[in-house]
Amino acid sequence: MRHLAATAVTLAGFTRLSRSLSTGRHSVLMFHGVRDHDDPRMLDHDLHIPAELFSSVCRHLARRSNVVPLSNMVDALEQGRPLPEGAVALTFDDGYASNFELAHPLLMRFELPATIFPATGFLDGENLLWFNQVDYALANTRRDSLPAEFAGNAGPLPLTTRGEKHLALQHVLGVAKHLPQEQVAGFVAGLETALDARLRDCATPPDAL
Predict the structure, then answer these.
(1) How high is the pLDDT of residue 26?
(2) Per-residue pLDDT, 13
(3) pLDDT tens sequence across 127-141
(4) Beta-carbon contacts of residue 86 (< 8 Å; ≥ 6 apart)
């Protein structure tokens, strides 16, 4: 649990925040989602900080920091106005349901403002976040190996254990992130077909969504 907490805090940028507060600079602390358990249908939960840890972060910020709306920070910096010492702004990327279901009650409890940058196609149900599609396909496939064309120089890769699937996920994400944007959707669709596991076919979306 201690290792998990340290990892989540580091991923959220909290250690960088601590350094900036000690030097009087301003910081933006960025999150994606919050979770109260791990969904077995997904492999990577690092983007979703445990709710208990997020509560601790909020408590610490409320007691020791000056949390301001991101818009206030931007306006002050653009207009050359001073901000409170060690000002902090909180943001969430993508617009996961947990932003409302888990994060919002904690933000309200500690009276902390936050800004959400939603992926509108994702929220409208027209598009899926491609990295979630990759994660789901690898976590739920019954295939025992990943074709080489999806794993780059590392492939083909075995998919017989959850650990092997997690390793394969890192390779696939690395390949996809280096593709031109217009090629990512086709790459992911091909992966889902090869693994015979599509997030769109999931009757109940994973909790991370």
Answers:
(1) 86
(2) 55
(3) 789 999 999 999 999
(4) 20, 21, 24, 25, 26, 27, 65, 66
When pLDDT is cut at 50, 70 and 90, the band that residue 153 belongs to is: confident
Q: Give the strand pairing for 145-146 and 115-118.
A: unpaired
**Where does residue 56 rank: exposed (0-12), middle (13-18), buried (19+ CB within 10 A)?**
middle
Peptide bond into 156 cis (omega under 30): yes
Query: CA 185 from chain center: how many Å?
Result: 19
What is the Cα–Cα distance from 85 to 126, expressed in whole angstroms? 42
Name, in order, each residue with C-beta under 8 angstroms of 5's C-beta and a sequence gap of 6 or more: 50, 53
The pLDDT value recorded for residue 4 is: 47
Q: What Rg do the C-alpha atoms of the chain give, in angstroms? A: 19
Tell me which of 7-21, 59-73, 161-175 is least confident.
7-21
| Environment class of 157 (CB within 10 Å of its CB; exposed 0-12, middle 13-18, buried 19+) | buried
CA dihedral 185, 33, 197, 170 (to 10 degrees): 70
